[in-house]
Write a structure and sequence with these properties.
Length: 322
């Protein structure tokens, strides 16, 4: 196709107009990364839905895959991310310098944007393996997720409560996606995963190969709740995964956290965007766990202070006293 000089001038004029309007608006939008989790989990799709919904002429948000809670907190502190999703336990430990952060110093700059939804402990095993309790994992080949994940922290706490140490089984430290592939080829007996159900990759496994869920129940679970106040009772219902019997388990809150160093006006816009009608519609239709992200629970179970920008929004919305 041949372009005349007139066409070229028209194109240049159009580009100039774009720069003067949309281009300048884009330049004013502030980048806001959201650290999520592995692409096969729940954090990643929920993060993508939220990032798309809150992006505007003021905010240019993007969801970034990561190793999960601990990795996201580290990225925020290191300045590699403006925000990230974290299990409530990991966020609280980081802020107070306790638990897995014992002796590493307090991360006092950590601030909350919102509590999102409950994350349920899944203990997934091959069908017919005979594992009826976490205590039965002894001698088995089991993945407890990657270092940097909240799932690994929960897995070790739960196994310890049932009298299982790392020496009692053959641990692997891989994400649920690769763990599922190893279960399919017979080189792994099962894995831990803390996340919202239904978990996409697990839904596919249920439809093709099948699996069983192991309950976290009884006196050990009661002791865990006493020792770790962020644990709450939860149930994975029958049929959450195809032909899979539900179980009683424990859950922790999935929370969206940031740094006190991030601009208050930016976090205000982000929080406002999260609870907008646009985000509500996207969450309700975009993922099964999206419906659990509700404003009424935005402040539930927060073990760290709210960011001033988020606090401003919740006061305006009537969720906090002014």
């Amino acid at each position: 196709m041949n372009f005349s000089r007139r066409d070229a001038l028209k194109g240049a004029a159009a580009l100039a107009a774009l720069s003067a309007t949309g281009g300048s608006a884009l330049a004013q939008a502030k980048f806001f990364r959201i650290g999520t989790g592995g692409t096969g989990g729940t954090y990643y799709p929920i993060g993508g839905i939220i990032a798309n919904a809150i992006s505007s002429d003021k905010v240019n948000a993007s969801a970034v895959a990561s190793n999960g809670s601990v990795a996201n907190v580290n990225a925020i502190v290191g300045g590699a991310s403006e925000s990230g999703f974290s299990q409530a336990d990991v966020a609280t430990w980081a802020y107070t310098g306790t638990g897995i952060y014992e002796g590493k110093g307090k991360i006092e700059e950590l601030r909350a944007i919102a509590n999102l939804y409950p994350e349920t402990v899944h203990i997934v095993v091959k069908k017919g393996l005979g594992v009826k309790s976490p205590a039965d994992i002894k001698g088995k080949r089991f993945s407890v997720d990657e270092p940097g994940s909240g799932s690994l922290v929960n897995a070790r706490a739960i196994l310890a409560a049932y009298g299982v140490t790392d020496k009692d089984y053959k641990p692997e430290f891989i994400k649920p996606g690769p763990a599922i592939e190893k279960m399919k080829d017979g080189s792994l007996d099962g894995f831990f995963f803390t996340g919202g159900y239904p978990f996409g990759a697990l839904t596919e496994l249920g439809a093709t190969h099948g699996f069983e869920l192991v309950p976290v129940d009884g006196p050990q679970a009661a002791e865990l709740k006493k020792k770790f106040t962020f644990f709450a009772d939860d149930t994975i219902p029958d049929g959450a995964y195809k032909d899979t019997k539900g179980v009683k388990s424990l859950a922790v809150g999935a929370q969206w956290v940031t740094s006190a160093k991030i601009d208050a006006d930016l976090v205000y816009e982000v929080t406002k965007g999260l609870w907008s009608d646009k985000a509500r519609a996207a969450l309700d239709t975009g993922h099964a766990k999206g419906k659990a992200v509700v404003k009424a629970n935005a402040l539930a179970g927060l073990g760290i202070p709210l960011h001033p920008g988020a606090e401003r929004f919740y006061k305006e919305a009537g969720l906090l006293k002014k």
